[in-house]
Write a structure and sequence with these properties.
Chain lengths: 266, 282
Amino acid sequence: MKRILATISFVVFISWLLGACSGTSNGDAVSRRLTVFAAVSLTDAFTEMGKAFESEHPGVIVAFNFGGSQNLRTQIEQGALADVFASGNGREMDTLAAQKLVDAGAPKSFLTNQLVIILPENNPADVVTLDDLARPGLKLVFAAEEVPAGIYARQVLDNLNGVYGADFKNQVLANVVSNEDNIRQALTKVQLGEADASIVYVSDAVAVPELQKIEIPADVNVIAEYPIAPLVESENSDLANEFIDYVLSPEGQATLKKWGFTPIVP
Amino acid sequence: MKVAWLLMSQLRKPFFQSRLSPLTEWLFVLPSLLLLALLALPILALLWRAGTDGMLSLIAQPSAIAALRLSLLTSTLSTLIAIATGTPLAFVLARRKFAGKTFLELVIDLPIVLPPSVAGIALLIAFGRQGVFGAWLNAIGITLPFTTTAVVLAQTFVSAPLFVRAARIGFAEIDHKIVEAAYVEGSNEWQLFRYLMFPLAGRAILSGAILAWTRAIGEFGATILFAGNLEGVTQTMPLAIYLGLERSLGIALALSTVLVFVSVLLLLVTRRLEDHKDGSTN
């Protein structure tokens, strides 16, 4: 008797687990799943948009995979099933287009983003101006050179060479104690006070309001354009296009603006 | 391969020398082959790709060499720390009974089953610059995160418990009669440890050390969270493989191949030690 009960409860448990996997909580509504691979900086904005999209499309579940754009690109190349890709830069999208994983004309820019310097709440290293970043002994944590945000941050340093002298970038990079896998990891290290400063997207800084910020002047800042596209191998291309339309709609753009991005559709 | 060969030879002989029907035999062989395929095919594919595409030459890249050197240095250091601190601990655990021992053993074993990412966050919260204890260290000028020391600490955290476990079992397995005889002969606890128990448990200690070393070399999650990622300072082989995947699959494959060979080698040595032990007791 005990054994039968144990078997029954095990079977119930397993079917509950399987139910969780497929995401079908209600059996009667036919549910479809839209898988969106998005740059990690979009985490808050896209999660909010996903919920709005779900409520407009009953029976649709939007599943997100947030990560460094270069990571997501690799996953898609290796055959990960995705319907939509929203990248932090054009390079990863172009790489996919070159392999015919995305139609060449498909990617649309849907927002721009800029960079800002963030400091922990208590600013332990007393960083006040941009050129303080070159002060020896500072602990900086950047996104790695492979990550779009990491590339932009180094471009900003290139631009600042024109202001503070040709060696400025090298001096700043000498203070880098870690190259993180994605921009949110760098942000977390600053948030925890483990790093003295980082260069992140304005939108990342909006997500963590308690951080101190130093603005980067417009003439040396970099404007990052994010492209979005449906994937050729998507089995839900109708839904994928509807989601992209939603991102570009006034409602979607308003959500992006709320999270610190600059909308591209006026 | 040895296992596969054994399985194949068993196909011709009935299992357990009993009279199982061919159907029953397949009931054993088929699931075994499925699991073996899952375990062996990825490694074979990895080696095959690395070999055919001539990617092994990429191992000579400066970043790959730096990762290799750092991995060897840190894993050796963390294993030495595990031996130096874990042997006394294992000895005490094997010899003494005291209140809270079960709880202590639980604390020691916990990192073995803990996800490495949890270990990394815990280390950061404890020993980070603004961490619970790290703030004190920071006050006297010691900062751990983003240093090679942090890599060693992360590796020790996840690998030392394996060593303690192996050494403790080694000490506990020593025949009580021998220990008692030594007592009768008038040896004290230090002499007992130095001249009797340490040599007798030597094999267990060595295989525990190798096990810990393998685990330390493979450490990833705790390292990337607690020590970060900087070439030559904190970027060990597993980190270089993970982050190199986006830059060039070739470097990742080459480094993976090296790690596979190192792991196989270490496993063979542990196997040897265990075989010898079985031989001596039989």
